[in-house]
Predict the 3D structure of the following.
Amino acid sequence: MPENIHAGHRDRFRERFLQQEGRDMHPHELLELLLYYSIPRKDTNPIAHRLLEEFGGSISAVFDAPIQRLEEVAGITHNTAILIKLVPVLAKSYLTDKTDVGTVLQNSDDFGNYFLPRYVGCTNEEVHVICLDNKYRLIHAKRVYEGKVNAVEISIHKIVEYALLNKASGIVIAHNHPNGIAIPSSADIETTMKLAETLTVFHIKLLDHIIVAGDDFVSLADSGILASYLKR
């Protein structure tokens, strides 16, 4: 009997992936292929199906699941759970790296599309800030807060200090609603107004505040909330 009865199937599966770069592959097939690299001698197809069934048929829910929950699925070892959790981290790093210093970001679509990859896999709330020069070129980007955030607790002092340190002409802030929808709360609006007012003292514009939820975002600048400050 061959050392691994699934070897021929695996070779064909890998070749299919290489030829078409996974474009025609279903979520369970992509998971099956991924699991090859931590489960060398088992049929990973039923394990892939179990993962999807356990997490509502959503591949993103599989990758977002806590490692302890993954290990509860039959066939998922600790090392396999780590491999699964590595995927969104690598995806986030890859997408983030594609936007380099010097990139021009000048409208709400640019801002939103810049921030979306930074929230891939985020289950806690995070606040991010980007600093731009007077030609809307990216100077620096930073996550300034991670944790359970109430918008009114965002440190205005910390953000202003960061903008001054990078000699920004304008900044854009973003935060996420991990379990909600991309609609600003009254606290979000209040904090945005306070931050914009404080930044004007230092001749820095708050160009936008982006709120992210899943693969959606809203712009407070587009809503008109920042109009009076952007005209100064």
Q: What stands out?
A: The two ends are 78 Å apart (CA to CA). Residues 7-96 form one domain. The mean pLDDT is 89. The first helix runs from residue 7 to 20.
